[in-house]
Amino acid sequence: MYSTDYAREETYQRTPTITITSIARIVRGCPSQRTTLELPFSLHIHFPLQKKNFELIMDDPIGVKKRVVVVVGGGIAGSLIAKTLLNDAAVFLIDLKEYVEISWASLRSMVEPSFAQRSVINHLEYLPNAHIIASAATDITENEVLTAQGRLIAYDYLVIATGHADAGPCTKDEKLSYYQAEHVKIRSANSILIVGGGPTGVELAAEIVVDFPDKKVTLVHRGSRLLEFIGEKAGKMAHDWLISKKVEVILGQSVDLNSQSDDVYKTSGGESIKADCHFICTGKPIGSSWLKETVLKDSLDSHGRLMVDANLRVRGHKNVFGIGDITDIPELKQGYLAQRHALVAAKNLNLLMKGSEENALVNYKPASPMALVSLGRRDAVAQILCLPVVGRIPGLIKSGDLFVGKTRKQLGLKS
């Protein structure tokens, strides 16, 4: 809670100094529960040993006048807005994980674990002067955020960027070990089952058959076609590409994972699939369940998404922003759009902190449909507006480095 050190003022006199960076307080309505309130400044109390009076000095190494911005969620959107605001505000990042992962590169890390050394980044690497709180957020009031650790963080502005729920590893070392284990599982298997024909399932199947062409890969999807979030022609191109690589694609069926016996899985259509291992590549729920008992509960739509206005502020809350996949913005949920949200919200936050008028805020315009799905290390399928393209040309855009170098540069790191 506090630390004590001694500063010599004269050769014969020492003055004790108590530095306080946080204070304890009682959670409202719970007299027995103490929490820690983080201060965006330090309090230095100096007093001579022989005197009763003392001097109180407030010293903020990052600027007393800076507003406090709390960002909840350290994914693609949350990490970028925290980095962008770092020099203009006292930034607190609350994230259960100690790292940000360039999520669209995760499947490459399963076939090439060393790739994750660049795509999994500790928050402290790019946010050296921010306050990193490695915890989940559990409650929000009009001006404070409560964490699972019992820490109460006061804010001037709040950014919600919790995306999709993910119960993965919390440290970088654990995440790297996870990819190493997944790689061993793939390498040692002769046959592999992938459940889900969205972008994750298609990209994982492609990564495996390109790096391990002798593996028998079966992809099962309950929908009538692959990549249903983009046009039918683009989905058909991805389907044909997988077939050309000898991937077995089964559509219109689901897999009963509880039916697995002797490495044989049953589908809803009565088919039997032999597989040494399987991967679930279906969608994850929106990371908003924790908001349902907070002051933002009335700002969630029927799907659990945060309703935001054109300035990316949460409806009904002038000092709260929502960015990334958790928002109700009518566009495809993709990483590069989450980054765009972060930059627009950061610009508006800077304007508000400088005292600009409401009409000066920047509006976010939902993006036109565009998608780029990698197919291994060289190929990809792209849809730009209504034009689908497959092969090396779209692959040159994404599939080599998977935008890892570009994303690292945005965070101020070497590519």
UniProtKB/TrEMBL annotation:
Protein name: FAD/NAD(P)-binding domain-containing protein
One GO MF term attached to the UniProt entry: flavin adenine dinucleotide binding
GO cellular component term of the entry, any: cytoplasm
Gene3D superfamilies: 3.50.50.100
Reported function: Putative FAD-dependent oxidoreductase.
Source taxonomy: Eukaryota, Viridiplantae, Streptophyta, Embryophyta, Tracheophyta
The entry's keywords: FAD, Flavoprotein, Oxidoreductase
Pfam families assigned to the protein according to its UniProt record, in alphabetical order: Pyr_redox_2
Keyword Ion transport among UniProt keywords: no
Superkingdom as given in the UniProt entry: Eukaryota
Ranges for domain FAD/NAD(P)-binding: 69-332
Family: Belongs to the FAD-dependent oxidoreductase family.
SUPFAM superfamilies: FAD/NAD(P)-binding domain
Keyword Flavoprotein: yes
